[in-house]
Structure formats: C-alpha cells, structure tokens
Amino acid sequence: YIMRGIICLSTLLLVVAAFPSNLTVRRTRQAYPNKAWPNALLPIGYRSNYPEAWKASVRAGMKTWEARTCIRFRDNDVTSKDRIEVYDGGQCSSALGREGGKQTYSLGSSCQGVSSAAHELGHAIGIHHMQVRPDRDQYVTVNKNNIKPGAYDLNFAIATDTSTMGLPYDYASIMHYGPFHFSQEGAPGMVPRDTRFRNNMGGLYPSFYDALRVNKMYNCDAKCASSRTTCINNGVPDVNNCAQCFCPMGYGGRDCSGNPAGSIVLSATASEQRYETTIAASAAGAIEYQIKHLVITAPAGKKVQLKVPYFWVGFDVFCTWGGIEFYTNTDTRMGAPRVCKMEWLESSYTSEGARMYIRLFNRADSQATYQFTYK
C-alpha cells in the first residue's frame, strides 16, 4: 500500500508542520514495516527540470533524519532500480515507504522549507500520520462536520492495522496535522484533549519520538546494543555515535546533563526579573529556522514562573514563520505547544521542576521580538 499525499507544509511520524491554507486533499493508505528500505538507505535523485534552488529544501530535510536516525540518503542517485525521484508536482507528496522501482516525491513551490521536506521524507521512510493511529481518539477529537468534503476518509480515518511501535501519541510529531488542516468555515477539524495544544499541533523538525519510531522500524538501536553509555533526562544512546546520547528537547551534552549548545541561561529568584531578546530577520524564502534556546533555573525545590508581556513574530495560523515553544515539564520527550500569537498565550507558565526550557524560532523576513518576565 502507498500513500500519495498532497502536503503543502511550511513547518510540520506517526510529524507536523504548518500547511498553507490552500492545502489540497491527499490520499492515504496503511504503512507496514515491509515498506522499509534495505540497509536503511534511500537512493534519491531529481528530474532534470527540478529547480536547482529547491534541492536545498530536500537536502535540509534529509539532514534532519540523518542527524536523528541511522537512515541515510544517497543523493543524486538516478540509476538505482528502487529509488525516489524528486519533481515539481505543484504540491507536496510522497509514496509511503518503499514501493519498488522508481517512486515519486513532489516538493513544489509552496512546499519549500525544511519542515515540509522532512515531513514528506518521513512518509518516504515509511511513516504514517500521527492522527490515524488506532488510539488517536484518546488524544484528539476529530470533528468530521468541520472537515472539507472528501478529506476525512483520505486523511483522518483511523488505520486500525498501523502499529504504534509501543511509543506514545505525540502531538508535536512532524507527522501530525494541526487543528485547522482541511478545516472549513474557520472551525477546527481536530481538537486535542490536551488543551495546551489547542491552537497548534505538529513540529518544526522530527521530534524525539519520531526519531525513536524510525530507529525501531529500521532496527537502528541494534548499533548500540552493547553500548555502556549512560544517559540521563530520558536521553538514549545516539545511533550515530553510541559513545554519546541523543537528547530530548532542551537538554544537551554527552549524557544529556547539560543545556543545548549556545543556550541563554537565566537564574530565577523570588523577585521578578525581565528579559528581552530578538531574532534577526531571515532572508526571504529562508529554508531553515533561526533558533534561540532559553533555559531558566530556580533554586532546588522551587519552580520557575514565566510570563510573556509581549512578543511579535510573522504570523500565520500554523506558526510557519516564527514563535515560541514552552517546555514546562521535566520530561521533554514529548514536544511542547507552539505559540505565535499573543492571544494564544497562557496568563503564565509554571515549570514542573526547578528548570524551564523555552525555544524561540524565526525564519520570516522580519525581526522577531520577545519579552519575558520570570521569577
């Protein structure tokens, strides 16, 4: 079975990105482990008329999966019998897993960007959408009447024989739709039971659980079966270097005991403090996000309270261009809600423990501005 999807993502495994409002219906089928590519190697080439400039998006998407999994892409391969052919089909689409022979992967003009490319490559690897999992009704309510005619059966119908691979439902998967994908009359077609995600679901890049899912599917974990590497904060041995750990969002270092590289670290006290920052405008049509990592710590036994008096980013309903992610839980394996509009903010955010991680992102051609108070 294959899935040929029309996924015009700008940001978004069983993963999400932000889709343009003119997203076209796509056809979905089931994903099976026997759709995996031998040796976790995906040959990929381009039609002769595929714009050279657009290849950067595809390659950026490849890097996101190669950095997190044992998947490898053999770029510019136009001779392998079984291979992926990239072309401009005027949409975003991919077969689901390995078909055998030459199969297509479309990344048109409206799909340019790392998230769209990574989402479609997730399908090519063999990953279905998150919202078709058999257990999805425990996590989201699908409002069929709010979905465009013809879109439900093709995009939201539960795939009863799709394996969850023993991993939890992930609202921040790059393979998850947002509330308004395929919606009509301005009403959400899908509502999360976890209200923190009420305005946005999906992710900018493959999530921690997306990576674990692919690594299970392709048995990448076997590479580190004899590893003695100890990871903390829910990290796991990195299948690309078993001597170090692959860390959940907001943690870094060899064993995940530290912060992400380049983090801004603030210390909270009993008195309210203020912090302001900006992310510069990106070049028009930027593929990648500029990221700032913010870590706020409190004394042992205390919690961090954060408020956002003001922020401004280029806005669309899918948070395609910029925003904030608030990781208030100590366990950050599950992604955080994405906010790109003042009206979506909570009155305050309180950490579960003595640490809070905030990710700021921007790829718009305008400066993003952020103001925080914390204690």
Strand residue content: 15-25%
CATH H-tier superfamily of the largest domain = Collagenase (Catalytic Domain)
| Helix-strand pattern | EHEEEEHEHEHEEEEEEEEEEE
Q: Which strand order does the major sheet show?
A: 2-1-3-5-4
EC number: 3.4.24.-
GO molecular function, one term: metalloendopeptidase activity
GO cellular component, one term: extracellular region
Signal peptide: 1-18
What does the model show?
This protein is α+β, with helices and mostly antiparallel strands and 375 residues long. The protein folds into three domains: 218 residues, Collagenase (Catalytic Domain), CATH 3.40.390.10; 33 residues, no CATH class; 111 residues, Sandwich (Jelly Rolls). Helix content is 11%, strand content 24%. It is built from four helices and 18 strands. The strands form five sheets. Strands 2-1-3-5-4 form a five-stranded mixed β-sheet, with helices on one face. Strand 8 and strand 9 form a beta hairpin. Helix 1 packs across helix 2. The longest helix is centred in the first third of the chain and has 14 residues. It is globular. The N and C termini lie far apart (53 Å). Keywords: Disulfide bond, Glycoprotein, Hydrolase, Metal-binding, Metalloprotease, Protease, Secreted, Signal, Zinc. Its main location: secreted. This is Metalloendopeptidase.
Summarize the structure.
Keywords: Disulfide bond, Glycoprotein, Hydrolase, Metal-binding, Metalloprotease, Protease, Secreted, Signal, Zinc. The protein is of the alpha+beta class. It is built from four helices and 18 strands.
Structural features:
11% helix, Peptidase_Metallo, 3 domains, Jelly Rolls, alpha+beta, 375 residues, 4 helices, Collagenase (Catalytic Domain), EC 3.4.24.-, secreted
